[in-house]
C-alpha cells in the first residue's frame, strides 16, 4: 500500500450486518429435540394401540419439527457465509428469509386446520374423548416447555459482535417464526382440551371443530403479521417517507444544495443503508455531509454522491442543471444522472 493511501481505512465501511443469536439457536435445538422425541413417542404409541388421535398429533408435531430444522439451517447458513463477499451487506437477511418461509408454512398449517375443521363440522365423526384429551394434554405440556425455552430470545439478543448505539437489541424473524409455531401448537392444544371436555361432559361435540376454526383464524393472523414484517425487508422497501423527507430537508436547508436521488432501505432486520445524490454550486467535502447527517442513527451504511453545478450562466441548460437564478433545479428523485461529475462517497462512522 502506497503512502498516500495509508489511511484508506477511514473511508471503508463494515458490510457485514449479520448477527448471531446464540441463545436463541441453542434453545431452538432443545425445542427440536423435545418435539422429535414427543413425535416419535406418539407415532409409536398410536401404531401399537391403534389410536388415530395419537398418530395424527405425532405427524402434526413432525410439521413443527421441520419448521425448527429450517430455523436452525438459516442460523447455520448465515454463520457460514457471514464473511462471504458475494453477499453485499452480509447475511443479515437470511434470518428474515427464514422467518418469511416459516410464516408461509404456518399459514398452510392454519389452512389445513380450517379445512379439516369445516369438514368435521359438516360430517361429524366419533370422538374418543379420553385418548384425545390425553394427546392434547401431552401436546400442551411439551409446547409450554418450548414456549418458555424460546420466549427470552425471540425478540432481543445482545451478544452479537456488532455494536451500534442505536440498536438496543434486534428482531430475529427466524426465531420469531419458531416461537409462533410452538405458540400455535400450544393454542391448538388448549382450545382442543376445552372443546373435548365440553364434548365429554356436556355433549357439545360441535365445539371441537369450532375451536379448530378459531385456532386457524388466530394462527393465520400471526402468520400474516410475520409475512408483513419480513416481505418489505426482502423486497428492499424504502424507509418511512417521513424519515426520508427529514433526510432530504437536512441537506437541502444548506444553501443551494439539491437532493436529486435518495434511497434508504433495510439491509438486515435492523440495519439501514442510504444512498444520496446531490448537486450544488459549492459542494462541501464528504466529512461535512457525514457530520450533517450524524444524528440519523438508523443509517448504518451511508454513501453520498456529490455533483458540482457549473452551468449557471446558461439558462438553456436542462432542468437537471443549474439555471441562472442562483439555485439548482432537479426533478425530484430523478434516477438518470450525469456521471461525468466527480463522485465523493461519505461513510458513516459509528
TrEMBL record:
The keyword Transmembrane helix applies. Keywords: Ion transport, Membrane, Transmembrane, Transmembrane helix, Transport, Zinc, Zinc transport. InterPro entries: Cation_efflux, Cation_efflux_TM, Cation_efflux_TMD_sf, Msc2-like. The chain crosses the membrane at residues 30-52, 58-78, 94-115, 127-150, 178-198, 210-227. GO terms for biological process: intracellular zinc ion homeostasis. It is a multi-pass membrane protein. The keyword Transmembrane helix applies. GO terms for cellular component: membrane. It holds the Pfam family Cation_efflux. Gene3D superfamilies: Cation efflux protein transmembrane domain. It is found in: Membrane. Residues 30-235 form the Cation efflux protein transmembrane domain. It comes from the Bacteria. One of its GO terms (molecular function) is zinc ion transmembrane transporter activity. NCBIfam families: CDF, CDF_efflux_DmeF. This is Cation diffusion facilitator family transporter. It comes from Shewanella fodinae.
Amino acid at each position: 500500500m502506497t503512502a498516500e493511501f495509508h489511511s484508506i481505512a477511514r473511508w471503508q465501511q463494515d458490510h457485514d450486518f449479520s448477527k448471531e443469536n446464540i441463545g436463541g439457536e441453542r434453545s431452538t435445538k432443545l425445542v427440536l429435540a423435545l418435539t422429535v422425541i414427543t413425535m416419535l413417542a406418539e407415532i409409536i404409541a398410536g401404531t401399537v394401540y391403534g389410536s388415530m388421535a395419537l398418530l395424527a398429533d405425532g405427524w402434526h408435531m413432525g410439521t413443527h419439527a421441520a419448521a425448527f430444522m429450517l430455523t436452525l439451517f438459516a442460523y447455520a447458513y448465515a454463520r457460514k457465509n457471514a464473511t462471504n463477499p458475494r453477499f453485499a451487506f452480509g447475511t443479515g437477511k437470511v434470518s428474515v428469509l427464514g422467518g418469511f418461509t416459516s410464516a408461509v408454512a404456518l399459514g398452510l398449517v392454519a389452512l389445513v386446520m380450517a379445512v379439516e375443521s369445516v369438514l368435521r363440522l359438516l360430517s361429524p365423526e366419533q370422538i374418543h374423548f379420553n385418548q384425545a384429551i390425553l394427546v392434547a394434554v401431552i401436546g400442551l405440556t411439551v409446547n409450554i416447555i418450548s414456549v418458555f425455552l424460546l420466549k427470552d430470545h425471540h425478540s432481543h439478543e445482545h451478544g452479537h459482535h456488532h455494536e451500534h448505539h442505536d440498536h438496543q437489541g434486534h428482531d430475529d424473524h427466524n426465531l420469531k417464526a419458531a416461537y409462533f409455531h410452538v405458540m400455535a401448537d400450544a393454542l391448538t392444544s388448549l382450545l382442543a382440551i376445552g372443546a373435548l371436555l365440553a364434548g365429554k361432559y356436556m355433549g357439545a361435540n360441535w365445539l371441537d371443530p369450532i375451536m379448530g376454526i378459531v385456532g386457524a383464524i388466530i394462527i393465520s393472523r400471526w402468520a400474516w403479521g410475520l409475512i408483513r414484517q419480513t416481505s418489505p425487508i426482502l423486497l428492499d422497501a424504502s424507509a418511512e417517507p417521513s424519515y426520508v423527507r427529514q433526510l432530504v430537508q437536512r441537506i437541502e436547508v444548506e444553501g443551494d444544495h439539491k437532493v436529486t436521488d435518495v434511497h434508504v432501505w433495510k439491509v438486515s432486520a435492523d440495519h439501514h443503508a442510504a444512498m444520496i445524490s446531490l448537486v450544488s454550486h459549492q459542494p462541501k467535502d464528504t466529512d461535512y455531509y457525514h457530520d450533517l447527517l450524524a444524528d440519523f442513527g438508523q443509517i448504518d451504511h451511508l454513501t453520498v454522491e456529490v455533483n458540482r453545478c457549473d452551468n449557471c450562466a446558461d439558462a438553456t441548460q436542462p432542468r437537471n442543471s443549474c439555471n441562472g437564478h442562483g439555485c439548482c433545479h432537479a426533478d425530484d428523485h430523478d434516477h438518470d444522472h450525469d456521471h461525468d461529475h466527480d463522485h465523493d462517497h461519505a461513510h458513516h462512522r459509528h
